[in-house]
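Hey, why these numbers?
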Amino acid sequence: MLIDSDICPAWYPAWVERCDSPLQIICFPYAGGSANGLADWSVALKGRATVLPYELPGHGARFCEDCRTDRAALVDEIANDLVKFGNREQRLVLMGHSMGATIAYEVGLALGGTLPLLLSGRAAPGYAKPLPSDLSDVTLTRRMTALGGTPTEIMRCQEMLDVLLPIMRADYKLLTSRDEMAKRYDGPVLAMGGDHDDAVPTDALEAWVLYCRSLQIATFPGGHFFFQTQFEDVVSRISKWLETL
């Protein structure tokens, strides 16, 4: 599949720079994240793949839209977007971190379960720890602090939190709006995680073997946002995996 460069749908960031690689990585953000937060991946993997961050409704450049809280409907929406702008000339790879990994997995299933899949910071179906039922600002702020990954300047700025917390709340509702999919995935999968991620213990990451026909697992020092401190090593591991596709 190749996204038509002459058509720029709402989810497609205008700043994306294409490369000559036959691979295109559709990248989905973690809860509260946006396409701009994935810009480093586009730069780091340039030459190996074109990274196309998917801007979710209600996030980033699509802030004026309503956030989606029905995961099944969102997965269908994304799958239709990718089919609509698909082309057989290049190969599509789906990638996501945390919430984004759940979206990538389910979109991959909706598209036939054969596209290469890169999952980061996400437990296998049935192994994820329950999300808090209380989605108050206090609970969400505490969870964000525990997981890390959110810049300190945002955590200390009430005005910025007032913008971010409703998006986080909607994303958590999105994650709990359907039972976790637990279907066999036939395409190649790379699952990555941090060796000190309390939200995704190593056994929960390794349990993806129950659902993937062709699985590689990579762990790195760190917690839930391990890639922020191990970015070069993570990029190197992804690059080696991409060479096998």
Remarks:
- The chain has a mean pLDDT of 91.
- Residues 131 and 172 are 8 Å apart (CA to CA).
- The two ends are 14 Å apart (CA to CA).
- The chain has nine helices and six strands.
